[in-house]
Amino acid sequence: MITLRISDNLFEEMLHDLRRPHEYAGERVGFMHCRQNSLRSGSLLLAHKYQPIRDDQYLEDASVGARFDGSSIREAMQTALTEGTSVFHVHLHEHRGQPRFSGIDRREMRQIMPCFVNLCPERLHGALVLSADSAFANVWGADLAPEGQGPDKLSLVGPRIKLWVNHD
Amino acid sequence: MTNRHARQSFLGTHAPNTFANCVVAIVGLGGGGSHIAQQLAHIGFLNVQLYDGDAAELSNLNRLIGASLDDVQNRTMKVDIARRMMLAVNPDMRIETFAGNWQLAAQSIREADVIVSCVDSYAARQDIEATARRFLIPLLDIGMDVHLIDQRPHISGQVILSLPGGPCMKCLGFLSDDNLQKEAEQYGAAGGRPQVVWANGVLASIAVGLLVDLLTGWNGLSLAGEYLHFDGNTHLVSRSPRLEFAPKTCLHFPLAEVGDPVFQ
After folding, report:
1. What is the pLDDT of residues A96-133, one digit of tens each?
2. Which domain holds residue B50?
3. Which CATH number characterizes residue B144's domain?
4. pTM, whole model, 2 decimals?
5. Position B263 in a domain
6. What's the number of domains chain B is made of?
7. Is residue B258 in some structural domain?
8. Torsion of CA A62, A65, A69, A75, to 10 degrees
9. Which of B114, B223, B259 comes nearest A159 by C-beta?
10. 8 Å CB contact of A46 and B135
């Protein structure tokens, strides 16, 4: 069982950053760091820090919403190593209701996620897409299928508790 | 929407699924916790963890919902009484019982989406809140006491909602080094504290109401925390002024400090 828990404060911090316009990138992305803890059967990922990508780390590429240089990924990888975190790539689909990954999102994640899994194979890593009031995630790990899997439970914790449970 | 819950359909179309998916841990199945357990079963919660290491005693029967004289004679554990009561309301519930200290089931309680604390000491509350904060779990705490004021008994109680990032029980002044120390000094000398079923019921019902608000948002409340005071002599519930003056961001449990403490 994989559970991902995010505080409302961190959710709002990420929304605020991802909504800021950029000079040429069509959207913003960032990295969310989690502490991985054991459950009786599985893992509990507790999000505790957001690492935005700096303005100068975006590359001009009109074919995608956002392209960023290798230094941003290296910085996220360094944080994962130094602080022992699980890393989630984060971006925003600006609408209400539950978001989903696009085909481009899935293609990009297949390239990025192995970097983190190979670097810290003892921990889970993933991708998170936010909407104005919801979230959707996929998790990769050394013991998981190559395409990863959704967390069994994703929760936003704050004045309103939101739970998404995968019953598959 | 099943017919069972048709009368609470105003909570929203997603409410039944939310109640079904939410794991609630109740720590302490005495006078307060037994009310909570009963109400969760009626509302439609399906996943509940029960933590209490005590068996029913004769002195519990003035307030322990679901308990009988047979339970006292048989030394039935309080968690088993609550489980039996909940399953009688809804046999589909998945109820885990832990007849011991909750700290001995540390990997279980962190699976909870909400913890309801119904314990009777400041020290126990402090321990539960520390765990709730580290694992990003909202905490509802209830408790009551009876004090002598001008030689007249005065019932008071509290309901506190402690949300990760928001003011904690220390920020609210409910827990302090002073009252923890006084409690420690009197350890073992106080005997059983006065408890009555009606005051426990009021406090438990308010806590359950806050829990339903948190999960459904049905009435539009958006609370960063809550501290309600119950005056059991006038039967009035009021918001503690301490909530207004507490720091909006907790200084004792920073959101960056989550999970099991580790050395890097």
Report:
1. 999 999 998 999 899 899 999 999 999 999 999 999 99
2. 3-245
3. 3.40.50.720
4. 0.96
5. no
6. 1
7. no
8. 170
9. B223
10. yes
